[in-house]
Fold Acyltransferase domain-containing protein.
Amino acid sequence: MTLAVLLSGQGGQHAGMFDLTADHPEAQPIFAAAGPLLGADPRAVAHTGGPRLHENRTGQILVCVAGLAAWTIVQRARPARVVVAGYSIGDLAAWGCAGRFAPETVLRLAAARAEAMDAAAAPGHGLAGIRGLAVSRIDAMARARGCHLAILNAPDSVVVGGERAILEGLCAEALAAGAQRAVLLPVHTPSHTPLLAEATERFRASLAEAPTLRPRGGARLLSGLDGAPVFDAEAGVEKLALQISRRIDWAACLEAAREDGADAVLELGPGHALATMARAALPDARVHAIEDFRSVAGVTDWLGEA
């Protein structure tokens, strides 16, 4: 079996996002490391819910906590071969799963990344998801309104960044043109667009101070920017900086997982968005999100069967 582990991005945070991992023994150091960064236990922050869950800094830390905590379940199952990739902030969590950064480093960098983005982003900006039109057509619509393609999910599915008021008009235009879905996302920064060029510079400085690790064996890490395997740590770290202000190609990441022979896919983190995209891109693979399971034993049993 080759297992593709996909690390969620922001947007799916919810009150029950740690229900499966909250009491998992191996996950306790992850929760403990996040507490000082959040000013509270991440499980309590999630359970309280409310607008804070979708604040940029809180959201990015929580998503990384969720991915790293769930990864401890995958490690227990000891799958034979693993390919890891992460979506947006999930790219950073993927480095932790692949053993390239210590979990504590991932969480500190998540905070620094969000702070850099918040400092660079003008108010009133965000992201919109549009599906059901050719990328070239959505690109033309976005450019005409001064917006930017931020993420390529599939040939007919993208995320666009810009001013939220303008994005609302773009969504209406896309729906009128036949789009199946066009909605504003619960993210308030124009991630992966040139509007955050200053954030890339600031985060690059934080990455330069972060110690990288050289694991022996372990998971194969794919860059969330373009799906290329990360062999050289320095080049890979630079892509972590660049992806804040450059369009990311998630479709390429899924294609790379397919080419690596992935016959099982597991999304780690809140929500099911990556699992849904993986089912379309890897139709012969067995696909689940961690939130599909009701127990840790259910996850490990499925991994043992996959």
